[in-house]
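Comment on both lines for my students:
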Amino acid sequence: MDRSDLDYRIQEIKCLKAKLESALSDSDESLIPGGEIPDGIRVYIDKILDMIPTDIRHVMTIAAALGNSFSLRFLSELLERPLDEIADFFQTDFLDGLFEESETSPVERRFRYRPVQNAILSALSATQKMRINADAASLLEQQYLAGQRSELRALVAFLANALPVHGVSKCAAYAKLYAEAKLRQLDPDDAADILEYVTEKIKISGEAWSPGDMAPLYSILAKAVYEQDELRKAESFITKSFDLYVSANDIESACSAAMMRITGGGIRKHAMRALPYSYGTASLIMKAKQLVEPGTVLYGWLLVSDNMPEGYRQAFKISRELSDGKLESSALARLLKVEGTVKDGHGTFHENRVLKSDEVIDH
């Protein structure tokens, strides 16, 4: 490219950028992440990109696949090119005004206009996007395990966008690690956000997954959305987690999911509400009693049945099958409160005079 052609391109790009900025200021729709780009804006973006030299355009393409914001250092490592060379690209007149320096780091950049990033991504095939994410995930995982980088959220996102390459198990494991850390940091919003993103990506990917991979994600997600006061969603995720653990024949984890308790308590009640009575078979309760604190599951049933006779009947029946007199007495007392008289398996009628035995439930 000779000097005159170079100068012409730079001047054209400056004019196009001014038109693009004016068009963007008149269109809120174009600023929606991942949204459609209006034709009146797309035409300026396409012309700008056509004017940019191929080598710089390639760097922009990789950067766009990494995200709206990205590290110049990581970009240089991914491209296997010197950091100074990559940094110089973003100082050229071609890219002036298209990127902004991060407020927190001089080596961080972000797209000034998200539609520019979207336009670059739309020109890539699904396979090309996946390959860039797969390469980024491999590099970042290597650096993370070596203690060189700590961007676990970015690693999870890269893995979620490269499931055919890295597999669901690895993505789920890192997502679990990140979400658990966020819950410990009292940041349930971020934990819920990344887990919902990952589970949706896995669902639409068509990639094979095992119940053991997915169950922990829904269990942690239940805790996160519970902290956000989204109780119905919490119940739904608890049920999914329980079902998946049972499918994986991991009864201990299933019971833990059913009886999960976090600081402040209440999610245990919602965990128990989420479980259909059909799961309360004697065989499952037997297994539960061998794996968790004896009586935990039945106590949970009794605590949350909310005067539902069927729940009390089931608890009463199972406690008799297990020959657990203490639990049987508790279940019976609760049932008597609702129905007044109860006929047990031996044809004996019990009346409301045994209510005092209910006290054992409130320990």
